[in-house]
Amino acid sequence: MRISFEGVSFSYANPEHAEKRKRRLKKRKEAGIVAPPASLADHKAPDWGSDPDQVWALYDITFTVEDNEFLGIAGHTGSGKSTLIQHMNGLVHPTQGRVLLDGEDLADKAVFKRCRGQVGLVFQYPEHQLFAATVAEDVAFGPRNLGLDDDEVRARVAEALASVHLDIDEIGEKSPFELSGGQQRRVAFAGVLAMHPRILVLDEPVAGLDPVAREEFLLLISELHAQGITIVLVSHSMDDLARFADRILVLNAGELFDLDTPAAVFSRDEELRKIGLDVPAAQKFANELREAGFHLPAELYTTESLAHDIALQLASASESEVRA
Amino acid sequence: MNDLAVLGRYIPGTSAIHRMDPRAKLLGSLAVMVIIFMAQSFWSLAVCAVFVLGFFAISGIPFKSAFRSIVPLLFVVVITALLNIFFVHEGTVVFQWAFITITTTGLIKAVFLAIRLVLLLLAMSLLTLTTATLDITDAFEYLLKPLTKLGVPAHELSMMMGIALRFLPQFIIELQTIYRAQVSRGAQFKDGKLSMVRSLTIPLFTSAFRHAETLSLAMDARCYHGAEGRSRLKPLSYSALDRNAVFVLIFMLLCVMSANFIPQTF
Amino acid sequence: MPLIEFHDVYYTYDGESFALSNINFSIEQGEFVCVLGGNGSGKSTLAKHINALLLPDQGSVKVLGKDTQDQNETYYIRSHAGMVFQNPDDQLVASLVENDVAFGPENLSVPTDELRIRVADALANVGLQGFDGRETASLSGGQKQRVAIAGVLAMKPEILILDEATAMLDPRGRKGLMRVCRELNADGMTIIMITHYMDEAAQADRIIVLDGGEVACIGSPQDVLTQHELLERLHLDLPFAAELSYALAHAGIDITATVNTDELKEELCALALKA
C-alpha cells in the first residue's frame, strides 16, 4: 500500500484571508496601535516555535511512501511534521493538492471510509488517549468501530496485545490507569495495531521514555516493520532515524527540504544545522575526522562501525610505517 | 471546535482603556450594559452604539476582532429576533401563512432587541479584549473581598478562575488531539453514542488530574500559601483615568436618557 | 559548610519499600551536579527532598544549614532552592509571562517596585527579554521551561533544581535550556539537574548515579560515565565519546576513556600522526 502526496499545501486559515490579515497586522504594528503580535497570532494553528504569521503549514509537498518502506520524518518543532502525518489517514485534507492511498483520493468520503484502519496513526504520548475501564476494552475500541463481530474483536485484541509483548491474561482485565507509563503506551499502541493497519504512522513514539523503554519500543517498531507493515516514523532523534529508516524526509518551514537515504541526507550536515537539525553523533564525528585527514570510506556510520574503521586505519597506518 | 475563545482573547495595548484599573473596567462595563438596557428607542440605541464604537476606537482594538469575538454568541441574537418576529402579533400584519403571522411591530421589536443584544455583547467583549484575564480575576477578588467576612473565599475563587483561564487554551488543544486520536481509531461522533463521548471526556479528565497534581506541587515549591502576605506585581490603584471614565459614563447615561425623549416616527 | 547535606536519608511512599535508602552526600556552593538513574531509581524523590516538598523518614537533609524538618524554615528553603518540573504545561500558574514570573516572589511579599525589577532581571537571565506581556499558552515548550526557570530566579535562589526539565523538549529547546543553566552556573548558581540525557550529564561538575533508591556511584563525569559495565548494568546509555573510546579500546587501540568528543578527536589525530 502506498501513500502519495501530490503538490499538497495546507493552511489552517483561509490563505487569502491570512495574507490580508498579515498585511493589516503589519501596518498596525508599524503604527504602534497593537503591541506584540504574539497573542494576535492565529491560535488555531499549532505554530509554536514557527513564524506565527506563516500562512502555509505545508507548501507544495510531493512524495510517495513506498510499500513496506521505513520512512523517517525529521524537522524541528513547527516545521509541519504533525500536520503532514495527519494527512496520511485523512484527518485533515489538503488545502491544495491531493493525498492518494493506492491511487484513490483520501478526500473522497467513500475512499476515506473504506480505508479506515488501514493507516494507523499513533499520536505523541498515545497513553493520554486511553479511556476504557479495562485494557482489553480499550484495545477493542478500534476494531469495534470497524464493525467487526465479537469473536473477531476478541481475537484481534489478544493478537494486538501479544504483538506489543503484553500478556492478555495478566493485564487484560486491569484498568489501563493502573499500569506503568511504558505499559500504558504499549496498550495504546496495541489499540491501533488491532485495526490491522498496513501502514503505521508514529509521531515521536519514544518521547519521554527512559533509555530502557526507548530501546524496547524501537525494537518493537522494527519487528512490526519486519512483519511487512510500512512504517512512517517522526522523530527528533537523528540517531534513531539513521539506525532504522530506509529514507528520511526532512521538512523545513512546511516545505520539503530533502528526501533521500540517511547517508545522503546526513552528508549535508552544514545545511541541516542551519535549519536547526543535528546529524547523528557518529556521523558528525566521522565528518570531523575526515576533515582532519582520516580516510573513512563508509557513507553512514554507527559507533561500532566507526570504531572499526578508525581502528583499521590506525593499524594499517602503523603497518605501512613498519614496512617502510 | 478550534475557536472557543468566546468573547475574545486579551489583545495587549497601551490605550486609555487598556490602562484603566481593572476594577473600574469591570464595574464600568457593567454600567455600560445597564445603560444599554435603559435605552428605550432607536434614537437612544443609536447613542449607545456611538458610545460603544467610540470606546472601541479609543481602545485601538480593530472592530473586526471585536465582531469576531461575539460571533460565537450571535445565535442568541438570532433566536431572540426570530422569537419576536414570530410571536409578536401586534401592529400591522405584513405576512400571513397558515399559523405564521408577521407584523410590523414584531419586526421592529426584533431589530431593536437584536441591536441591543449586539451592543451588550460588544460592551462585554471590550472588557475581555482589553484586560488580561489575571487582572479580571484580581478585580473580581477585590470586589468580592467584603464578602470574605461572610465566608466567601474571595482569594481562592479568583485563584481558581485564573488557573482555569490559564489552562483553557491548553485543554482546547488537548481535546483536539484526543478527538483526532479517537477518530484515527475509527470513532464516529455524529450520533453522540455514550462510549464515543466517553473516549473524549475520560482522557480529558485524567489529563486535568495529572496537570492538577504537578501544578499544586509547583505552587508549593514556589512558596504559595494563600492570600496572606502576598504582594502584587500589579497593585490595583485608581487613577485620574478611572475618574474620567466615571464622567464619560455619566455623560453617556444623560445622552441616552435624553435620546429616549426624542419621538420615534414609526 | 556545604550548601546541601544528605545524612543517612531513608524515604518510603508506601511504608513497604524504600524509594530512597542510606543516602549520604553533600553539594558545595557553585557546583553543577547531575543526578542519573533509570525509571524508579529515586531521582525525583531525591530532588523533592532538597526543597522540602518531601521530608525524610529517617536521617536529615540540610539546605543552607537549615534542616528541612524545621517547618519554620520551609519557605526559606523553598525560596532558596527553586525547582523546575518536567512538564512545561503543568507548572505555569498564570496566563501572562510576567504574572507567572512574579508568582513566587509575590508569595514572599516582595514589594511591587522590587517585583518589577526582579521580573525583568529574571527574564533577561533566561534570554526572554521583552516576553513580559506574552501569553504563556503561545510559547514553545523550551520557552515555557525558561519562564519556569525565571519564576524560580525571581525568588533569588542559591540552588536551582531541574527535575527532568529537558525530558519533554525538542533538541533545540534542550540546548537552549542547557545554555541557560550553564550561564547561571557560571554566575555562581548551584545547579542540580536530573536527566536521562548523557550529553547533558557529561557537562556537569559531578554526577550522582542512583539505583534502586541507593547511591550507586558519585564522581566526575570522566570517572563515572566511562564505567561501561556499571552503566550497562544500570541500563544507562554512555555519552557518544565514552562509547566510541570504549569500542576503540575494545578494538585494540590504546586510548584514554573520555566523555569529551574534542579530547577524543585530538587524541585520535595524535595517534594517526604518530602512526
Can you describe what's shown?
The complex is a heterotrimer of chains A (324), B (266) and C (275). In chain A, 43% of the residues lie in helices and 17% in strands. Chain A has 324 residues and is an alpha/beta fold. Chain A has a domain at 280-324. Chain A has a six-stranded mixed β-sheet, sandwiched between helices. In chain A, strand 7 (199-203), helix 8 and strand 8 form a beta-alpha-beta unit. The model of chain A is unreliable at 34-50 (pLDDT under 50). By secondary structure, chain B is mainly α. Chain B has two domains: 1-131 and 236-266, no CATH class; 150-234, no CATH class. Chain B has ten helices and two strands; from the N terminus they run αααααββααααα. Chain B has a two-stranded antiparallel sheet with strand order 1-2. Chain B is flat. Chain B starts with 15 loop residues before the first helix and ends in a 7-residue tail after the last helix. The mean pLDDT of chain B is 86. Chain C is an alpha/beta fold. Chain C has a single domain, classed as Rossmann fold. In chain C, helix 3 crosses helix 4 (112-125) and helix 3 packs parallel to helix 5 (141-153). The radius of gyration of chain C is 20 Å and the shape is globular. Chain C starts with a strand and ends with a helix. The model of chain C has no long low-confidence stretch (mean pLDDT 92). Chains in contact: A-B, A-C, B-C. At the A-C interface, helix 8, helix 12 and helix 13 of A face helix 6, helix 10 and helix 11 of C.
Count the E strands of chain C.
Answer: 10
Q: Name the overall outline of chain A.
A: globular
What does the largest sheet of chain A look like?
6 strands, mixed
Structural class of chain A: alpha/beta
Query: Rounded to an integer, what's the Rg of chain A over CA atoms?
Result: 23 Å
Helix/strand order of chain C = EEEHEEHEHHHEHEHEEHHHH
Tally the helices of chain A: what do you get? 13
Helix content of chain C: 25-40%
**Category from helices, strands and their pairing of chain C:** alpha/beta
Q: What percentage of residues of chain A falls in helices of 4 or more residues?
A: 40-55%
